[in-house]
Amino acid sequence: MAAKSVRTGGRILVDQLRIQGCDRIFTVPGESFLAVLDALHDTPEIDVTVCRQEGGVAYMADADGKMTGRPGIAFVTRGPGATNASGGVHVAFQDSTPMILFIGDVSRGDRDREGFQEVDFPAFFAPVAKWAARIEDARRIPEYVARAWRVATAGRPGPVVLALPEDMLRDEVETADRPRVPPLSQAPDPGAIQAMFELLKEACAPVAIVGGADWSPGAGHHFSNFAFRYGIPVAASFRRQDSIDNICGVYAGQLGYGPNPELQQRIRDADLILAIGTRLGEATTDGYTLIAPDHPGQTLVHVHPDPNELGRVYHADLPICADMGEFAEMADGWLDPDLVRFACGEQAHRIWLDWSEPKPRGGVVLDLGPCVAAMRDKLPGNTIICNGAGNFSGWWHRYWRYGPMPTQLAPTSGTMGYGVPAAVAAALRFRDRTVVAIAGDGDFLMNGQELATAAQHGCDLLVILVDNGSYGTIRMHQEREYPERVSATELANPDFAALARAYGGWAETVEKTEEFAPALDRSLERKGIRLIHCKTDVEQISNATTIAKIRKRSKDRS
Prior knowledge:
Radius of gyration: 24 Å
Oligomer: single chain
Distance between the termini: 72 Å
Largest sheet: 6 strands, parallel
Shape: globular
Strand order of the largest sheet: 3-2-4-5-7-6
Number of domains: 3
Number of strands: 20
């Protein structure tokens, strides 16, 4: 235990962050935590990324947590600051991302009077955080920060929210620092690994679904080796396509929205399912129908770092509670000469290779499939692709080939406005790598102001902005349920290229397929903010569907 010293609460808090290994925070400053900002002035080890809206702050912290495996750190002020950031806390909760949100709060003596911007933050955030609390005594800051670090990272990672009364941060007290919280890792029971191999020896059509909580580059490497050695097809859960390098010879593609129907059928026909790290959530399982919670006729091996997730929704025939890295390494090193290699893994990979190759589509003026192919040809394999929510993302989910993580930053919760903030966080974390934000027109304008953050902090990033003048995903559902009755989904947009230039960036607008690759070449000759504004037809609503097809199906159904 470190020696005690007299410090302000703000100084104590920043010291704890430094001790725990924090090297960056994201913030919109507030008068409620000036003591923290003052302490950061004398802490060069922690980079302070000043953002333009608290939604961007929280999304950047989530993205940073995804990339590092350490808690992403966000500071916002009370009331509107905290409520603006709540969307990012929800993303971190559903995405199992380690994150800590610190909120400057009203002074302790003013509480329960509906003071200026007062909110009961532990109550407000309790449903979407692993733990939400308020620090009442500056002497206990080291205790609370150490606990927050542990809660955010242990088991199923997730967000922690700590409210910081303004007067508590100004208190000068004597307290001791807590040491760095070591990571927890639980090795699987060797008997469980043996049991899994026995189930594999009895199987005829196994399939693995990977991604989710506690997944890491090491886990992806070792699981790829294991799956390829025994020829097991590997599907990525929704927006976890970088869980293993897509060049792995048994990678079978992604589940979620717009998956390959052949992959879905492979899942239905599987007699053994290895669910590794994933919760088997609604998107991955197509509303809990692709794999039923009781999965009759199928055997389920469910591996997860949190015992509370095992058996929570899905009955597991073999539940294994373990750190993902420890599990994957043990599976990789477990050699069983009696297990004959399956042929279905390489077959599934060949099917995915064909599915992920864009095919010519006649009559489409700007076809995004060939645009993704052009990006594949010109960008390095470790490019980080960041996107929010919208049908525009389906082209990259299908046609882009993701390298080992972190190469995909995308919210499984389906929130809009995530791509640009995530790209800023990625460009700061990996200044030597190519970072691309993919955004729709509605999606971009929810947090596009964070291009100002990118400019201020000297980020290199490319934005591909898909503009169809519509909230496209909602329009798709609208046409399905109420064909030809367009309501509240049309958008009047600004000149996005001019907007990017206003932030000091380079930009071009393309309206034809053949214009995209040359524009991409010109963007790659430059540094800083670059934006390619792709003006598309709302009739081409996704990579497989047009509004005309949706209307026809609706009429046929009626």
